[in-house]
Design goal:
The chain is mainly α and 99 residues long. Helices cover 28% and strands 6% of the residues. It is built from 3 helices and 2 strands; from the N terminus they run αααββ. Strands 1-2 form a two-stranded antiparallel sheet. A hairpin with a 5-residue loop joins strand 1 (76-78) and strand 2. The longest helix has 11 residues, at 5-15.
Amino acid sequence: MVIYREQAEALKQLSSLIGQDLRVLAQQYGVTVYQNSNGKLNKGWAGLTIERCLGLKQNSSQLPDFGVWELKLISLKYLRTGELKIKETMAITMINPNK
């Protein structure tokens, strides 16, 4: 597997987040975790927070987040058995090269 220099730097920075409460970082970066009006969870808050930690500003571009690579997060949950599983499937949209 080829890891571009930028990816290696991002992985190093991300490893410093292990064990930290992302909700605290979300607050520092101004990322909404719960919508105030109804208390509903903002589904993408963790990914947005990590993007901010890596220096990316919020955008809706179809281009990869970091030039040649894209950051994706998946939610996990514990089953009653204690087993850790992926919470839901992930859908990745097609990128329009003209955009």
